[in-house]
Amino acid sequence: MGVLNLTPDSFSDGGQFLDRQAAISRGLQLVSEGADILDLGAESTRPGANPLSPGEEWQRLEGPLRALLNCGVPISVDTRHAQTMVKALELGVDMINDVSGMQSEEAVAAVAASNCGVCVMHMQGQPLTMQDTPNYRDVVGEVNQFLYDRTRALERAGIAASRIVLDPGIGFGKTPEHNIQLIKGLDRLGSGQFPVLVGLSRKSLIGHLTGQPVDQRVYGSVVAAVAAVFQGAAIVRVHDVAATRDALRVFAALGT
Ligand code: HH2
Fold it and tell me: Which residue minimizes the CA distance to atom 15 of ligand 1?
């Protein structure tokens, strides 16, 4: 899954793809580099980020989204806002990626009224303060329980299990140690019944492990993506598609 951030303030590439044409070119580049899914997001949810209104989010999203709908790969929209989900689904997007875990009834209703896929991610707290005091007794057990409860709620709303993808939410209200435990315990998520999506690309965990600033985290991120696939991830959400694609091809041939 290639990341297309239509934001001024994303933690690694904020401002680079705000311009409509730059965004479209970047999306097409990610597809040509081998992305199987494009994930378009217009609201940064990095630690410390302030929430964006759905109206402003749609203003950033609509142009590039319309232009990339027929780019040849499924389109995912990364949003926490039900209003944005409804509008994106009206345009025919393939997947909704909700970092707030599909906890709003409106979001569940929007997805239930369509046939799209849905990624349910775990986050402790809200982006503005989530890294202040992450706290768990058993991070893998608690994240797993949250995801289990959400899948039951989605299924009760009529969303078939085959449409659901789970995500432990690396860096969303978690210390480096929590993130490491989650990657190592990936096979326990969803009891192996749902595909798992993982986003590690350029994140502070990579900085923590390598000592590198955000613009020097490609190597660490690529190995992290391979490690996540080794631990059972079905989808890796990445900014550096070409490098990750090469690594995963080699790993598929030699590593398993
Ligand atoms: N991480 C980010 C955003 N959306 N969605 C899922 N499902 N999983 C993730 O790990 C995830 C996500 C953060 O990365 P990015 O979009 O590059 O940064 P920002 O939130 O600053 O735009």
Answer: 10
Summarize pLDDT for 159-197 with one digit per residue, the tens: 999 999 999 999 999 999 999 999 999 999 988 899 999
Say if residue 239 is exposed, middle or buried (CB neighbours under 10 Å; 0-12, 13-18, 19+).
buried
Q: With 0-12 CB in 10 A as exposed, 13-18 as middle and 19+ as buried, what is 211?
A: exposed
pLDDT, tens only, 96-154: 999 999 999 999 999 999 999 999 999 999 999 999 999 999 999 999 999 999 999 99
Judge if the beta carbon of residue 41 lies within 6 A of ligand 1. yes
Contact between residue 165 and residue 213 where contact means Cβ atoms under 8 Å apart: no
- Cα(219)–Cα(55) distance, integer angstroms: 37
Q: How far is the CA of 201 from the centre of ligand 1 (A)?
A: 9
For ligand 1, atom 8, the nearest C-alpha belongs to 199
pLDDT (0 to 100) of residue 191 = 82
**Which atom of ligand 1 sits closest to the CA of residue 13?**
17
Length of the chain: 256
188 is catalytic: no
Nearest partner of 52 among 13, 99, 119, judged by Cα: 99
CB 94 within 8 A of CB 116: yes
CA angle 9, 11, 13 (to 5 degrees): 75
Q: Is 199 in the pocket of ligand 1 (CB under 6 A)?
A: yes
pLDDT value of position 109 = 98
